[in-house]
Amino acid sequence: MDLHESAAASGGRDSSHEYDPREYAPTLDAASARARAWLGAVFDRPIPARRSIDEVKSALGRTLPEHGSDPAEVIERLADGVEPGLMASQSSRFYGWVMGGTFPVALAADWLVSSWDLNAGMRDATPGVVGAEELAGDWLLELLGLPATADVGFVTGATAANFVGLSAARHHVLAALDWDVNRAGLAGAPPITVLVGSERHGTIDLAARYLGLGEPTAVVSDREGRIIVEALAEAFERITGPTIVCLQAGNIHSGAFDDFERAVHIAHDAGAWVHVDGAFGLWAGASPRLSHLTAGFEGADSWASDAHKTLNVPYDCGIAIVANPDAMHAAFGMRASYLQNPDEAEPHDKVPELSRRAHGVPLWATLRWLGRDGVAALVDGLAASATAISAGLVELPGVTILNDVVYTQVTMAMADDEQTLELGRRLQSSGEVLASPSRWHDRAVLRFSVSNWATDAAEAARTVDAVRRALPGL
Question: Where are the annotated segments for Disordered (predicted)?
Answer without folding.
Answer: 1-21
